[in-house]
Give the backbone structure.
Amino acid sequence: MVEIATENKKDFKSKVFWKDLIKVCETQAERLANNQQWYFSREFFTNIKKIEELILRRKNKKWDILIAESYVHEADSHRARKSFAELHFLVKAIEEYKKLKDYKKVEELKKRYMESSKNVEFGEISTTMDVSKIIANAKKRAEKVCKLKPEEIIGFMLASQNFFPKFYQIEKTVNDHSKKYISHLFGRTFYDKNMNQPKDYSSDEEKHFSHILEQYGIAMSIYKIEIEILMTRLITEKRI
């Protein structure tokens, strides 16, 4: 409702309407916060902030503080589970407190982040890929390439359209997968070896980009298999 109203703000000129809408949002946000439903309460606080800044042309730190606090509360709710979710929400809280220029709180949360990162336990999900067909096709290709002249072999390896993954093919695969698997609906967070969070893919555009990178990695793994088989055959046959 808030989104529709703000997008059509010219049709809602009465400030009374907007003030009443803020009261409704605040009541719902408080109810949800009391039930520890931090995500949904934060959505209402964000909507209130949007109305005040975009429509009423005023700034109120109250909503920024409540948004920041909601991330801390959400991190608290994951603390005992020793999961990366706590780290994720701590990062979000740190970002919000930086905007508020509450650097004391930022340092406090950073210390908590470092302590919690030592206790995080990651689960593991793995998949296997059958490369037997890839290997068979690579061997057939290597056999054909071995019959070429040396200069033709070099030209093939430098200019062949069959080896290197093409962007449009990768993006098509990603788009096809997005229609079949729900994993494309979720954001992705990456951590380095020190448990710092170098990148968080949360928007639709960022999630799409992360899946393209993942698919490109798979394509490059296949390329590695094919080029190794080809080079081994060329060396064995003394063609290079």
